[in-house]
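Researcher: Let's continue the batch. This sequence belongs to Site-specific DNA recombinase, and it's 222 residues. Same format as the previous ones, please.
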Amino acid sequence: MQGIIYARVSTKRPEQETSLERQVADLKAFAVAEGHTVLEVITEQHSGFDLNREGLYQLLDRIKFHRAEAVLIQDDTRLGRGEAKLAVLHQLHRLGCTIISQQQGGELELEAGESTVLHIMAKVEELQRKWMNQKISWGMQRAIREKGYNPSRNLKNHGQGGREKKELPVEQIVALKEKKLTFEEIAATLQGFGYDVSRATVHRRYREWKNAQGIEGEVSEP
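Model: Same format as before. Here are the structure tokens for Site-specific DNA recombinase:
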């Protein structure tokens, strides 16, 4: 399994630096013994109760964008303390990352209370996601009803099936934006016609189009 070593100590005192170096050395040896490939080593000296950690953000980015399968830690307290630890565990689980603990000799096993909290957090997030999707759907219905725009008459590739399409219809993004739809509503429209696209991607493509046209000004929501 390909993973990232994450080692942390709580302060920047000189004696803690030695502890940090020892953590890394032990985790590297553990990875070799267990047959894991170490892609990167991330270390930091910061309180585990604080989520505003540069090393933590780096870890999450590496897992999300570089497809690391696992994070190797000395024990679960290295990820954080108290509520901060639960928040980090939740994010790692969302990213589909396996947490491997040297202390436990394998995949991290949570306490019953922690597992319950994470389950509740996942359910709350699922409800929020469904709520947001419903709001987008209502917004699209309102836009079509009030603004008289039917995207199915204009979108290319409509009816061809499939979810993955490399090209996005930028001209239709522009047309929808001119109809005062939000980027979320535009993304939802494109998704409905088979385009695997996010709000951020729609925003970026629209901004790129404006730059190419030499149009100045902020790209804002209505």
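Researcher: Any comment?
Model: The chain has seven helices and five strands.
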